[in-house]
Each structure stands twice: as C-alpha cells, then as structure tokens.
Write a structure and sequence with these properties.
Elements lengths: L30 E6 L5 E5 L12 H11 L5 E3 L2 H6 L12 E3 H9 L4 H12 L2 H14 L22 H12 L2 H6 L4 E4 L9 E4 L10 E4 L2 E4 L5 E9 L3 E10 L2 E10 L3 H16 E7 L4 E6 L7 E6 L3 E6 L7 E6 L12 E9 L2 E10 L11 H7 L1 H32 L4
Antiparallel strand pairs: 1-2, 1-11, 3-4, 5-6, 7-8, 9-10, 10-11, 12-15, 13-14, 14-18, 16-17, 17-18
Length: 422
C-alpha cells in the first residue's frame, strides 16, 4: 500500500512562531538578534530587520561557499586581480603566490584577510563578480531576503547590507558545517612558507572572546571579556558599519546564536555577554516528545491483525522559558479510514505540541509493524462462518417440505372420498 501521509512536518522549525517577551538589556548595538541555534527561535531582538552594514561578518558567507564549492587541499595561484582588489586587512599575498584553500580559509576566518576573500572568490567562481552572484543566490535560498552583497570581504559599499536576522540565518547554516565551525573557533593559525615567502605567517584571531583578558562592564560589574561556552564566531569592523559580532555559544546542551551589528568596542562584547546571559538564564531546550514514545493502539480495517501500536517517529525538542514545560499541551490526530495493508514506519497521524495555543513542535506518528491485508475467505470458510444462515435455510426448506407433504396428503384423501374409496 502506498504510504498515507496526512502532512509532512519538519520536526525542527526554521522559525518558531512562539514569541517571548523581550527584556530591557540596554544594548548598544543598533541591530541585534539572539536565536536558539537548533530551532531558530528568536529569544531576543532589537531592530532585527533593520538593514545595516555587516563589515567582515560577510566572510561567513564567503567561507561556507568556499567550503562547499572547493577542496581544502586545492592550490590557488594568486593573480594581479586579487592584489589590486585588496584593501583593508590582508596577509600580504604576493603575485603568483601559491597557497592551499585550507590556508586561505584560515586567513579569511582567523585574520579576517580581505586578499584571502578575493582569492577564494576567484577560485570558486572564476571572478569576484560571479562569486558575489553566488553569495546573493545563497542568501535568497536561506531566506535572507533583506540582504545584498557586493563583495566577498565586507569592505564598505552602500549597497552591501544585511539585517541581524538575515545574518543569523546565514550563520546558522554555516555553523552547522563542522569544517566551518573549526575554522571559526581558532584563535591562531600558521601558514607555512610558500613559493613566494620564505618565512611562516603567524595569524591571530580578531575575536577577543577566544583570548581577551581585557575587562568589560556588565551591569556595573567588571568581568573578563572571554566568555565561557563560546564555540565559534566572526568579528567585523568598518567606520560605517562600526563593530559587528556573530557568536555561537553552548551550555548545558543548549546552543545560542547572537548577532550584534553597529555597536562599539568593547560594547559589542558586552552586548553579546548580556544576550547570552539572558538566554542561558531564562530559557531551556527541552524534549516534549521522544522517538518511539507509545501513542495508542489503532484499530485497522481488513487487517490480519486487528490493531497496530503506533509511536512518535522522532524526538520533539523545543525552546521554552524556564518553568513552562508543564504548560505544554498535546493534540493527537490520526488519518481517517486506516486499513490494511500497512507497513512498519508508515505515517498514520501526527502530534502537535502547543504552548498558550501556539504551535511549538510537531512529529509524525508511525506504525510499529507491518499489517498485511486479510486474504478473501474461501467458499467453505464462508459457508462455515455463516452456519446459522445455512441452518435457517434448512429449516425453511424442511418446513416448506412438510407443508407441501401435508397438502399433498389432504388432496389424496379428498380424492379418495370423492370416488367412494373407503
């Protein structure tokens, strides 16, 4: 039997429709968002859809495209276009210098090198302009519809912009990639000698979350800038964009992603501290449903088994404000007219989980076994199963015969009397 699928639901939602009341965190950044990493649920925001300049956080998109479209051990030869297009931060790439994609990616993410961005763009797409087209195409695919890139590095251009929310979509996508996370988590990297450089290049991260000993003010307290639980991130700065910072942190199994645009230094780190503290202290990432959790025994029409046990197909995890787990309500719905044959794993319904009448999670309900269709019964089986009908018919036939026999005897007697037979 073809699978009867009522609705196909993504277990983990790209954007959770449940909204949380925003606290006043006194943030300096003009465009801010914090999302729970796995679900994308927005936990706090400030002007998250306002178009702002991303500066070098642009390199998040550049890096993930280079990872997806290139190979780490491929060798890139630097041409004059790369040198001529470079302004701002760089690692002094030289004409005809040869370097691996891996080292260029490290230069891009650790040292925020603009010449590495241009080199990777040309390597992937043949030209920087074609790579920019690829960047914008990918942004649209990810739902970053308020974003437009004009270069792979983030150098200022009035038409090069994004929003805090759009950048969170791009960063979530990139940070789901293990190679990207590794690159975005490094504080140092060494590029060995090349055909043009006879000394190694020692690169150091611009992200003070990895090593910063400077102290910042958080609600009147002076604390170290380094934040426990930071996994990876990317900084950015231009005079127009000001300080920008994208950060992913994890504590107690919950991952948070923050984007801060157009802040100041060190306020951009203080803003991120406040966001992460608020997120980890006030929200929980909890399981409201578990894979293989028993739901019910369903009656199956025309099956060799009259019932089938059904369970949740997957885990259902969601982000909740602390203490609200007991407010979750569950709504179960099944497909209509369930009949055999049914295969193990067939979708027979779904479970929706609600908080304050808002959907916060869903999962399919599936069969735990195969249920074959009952074979049509043979004639003798039908006759045996309908014995009471046969008995009834026999009784009718016997009664009819008796009535006929009695009537025949009466006619014979009347005939004998008529002709004088005694």
């Amino acid at each position: 039997m073809k699978k009867k699928i009522l609705i196909i639901i993504a277990l983990i939602l790209l954007f959770n429709t449940y909204s949380f009341a925003d606290a006043d965190l006194s943030l300096v950044g003009e465009g801010v968002v914090m999302v729970e990493f796995d679900s994308g649920t927005v936990l706090h925001q400030k002007n998250m859809n306002t178009k702002l300049y991303p500066a070098s956080t642009t390199k998040i998109m550049t890096a993930i495209l280079a990872i997806e479209h290139g190979k780490m051990d491929e060798i890139v030869t630097i041409d004059s276009d790369v040198i001529d297009l470079t302004d701002g931060s760089h690692i002094a790439l030289d004409y005809d210098e040869q370097m691996s994609v891996r080292d260029l990616l490290n230069a891009l993410m650790v040292a925020s090198a603009n010449d590495a961005a241009a080199a990777l763009a040309k390597h992937v797409s043949g030209s920087v302009d074609d790579f920019v087209d690829l960047m914008n195409q990918k942004a649209q695919e990810l739902g970053a519809t308020n974003t437009n890139f004009t270069n792979p590095s983030g150098l200022h251009d009035d038409n090069h912009y994004t929003t805090a929310y759009d950048l969170s979509l791009i960063a979530r996508y990139a940070m789901a990639n293990e190679t990207f996370r590794e690159l975005a988590s490094k504080s140092t990297h060494t590029i060995d000698v090349t055909n043009k450089k006879d000394e190694p290049r020692y690169l150091y991260s611009t992200n003070q979350f990895f090593y910063g000993s400077m102290k910042i003010d958080i609600n009147g307290q002076r604390i170290p800038i380094k934040y426990d639980g930071v996994v990876c991130g990317k900084t950015g700065y231009t005079s127009q964009a000001r300080n920008c910072l994208v950060t992913m942190a994890e504590r107690n199994g919950m991952k948070l992603l923050t984007v801060v645009l157009k802040s100041e230094n060190p306020d951009v780190y203080a803003d991120t501290h406040k966001l992460l503290n608020y997120g980890f202290n006030n929200f929980d990432y909890v399981a409201v449903g578990h894979a293989n959790e028993f739901i019910d025994n369903l009656e199956i029409e025309n099956g060799q088994h009259p019932y089938v046990s059904v369970v949740l197909e997957d885990n259902v995890n969601t982000i909740l404000s602390s203490g609200s787990l007991d407010k979750i309500q569950r709504k179960i719905s099944f497909n209509e007219d369930l009949s055999a044959p049914i295969s193990k794993g067939d979708v027979v319904g779904r479970v929706d989980y609600y908080l304050d009448e808002t959907l916060v999670g869903s999962a399919n309900i599936v069969s735990t076994m195969d249920v074959a269709e009952q074979a049509p019964p043979k004639l003798h089986q039908v006759l045996i199963s309908k014995w009471y009908i046969l008995v009834f018919i026999a009784l009718i036939v016997l009664r009819t015969y008796n009535i006929y026999s009695k009537a025949k005897r009466r006619r014979k007697r009347r005939s004998s009397n008529l002709y004088g037979y005694h």
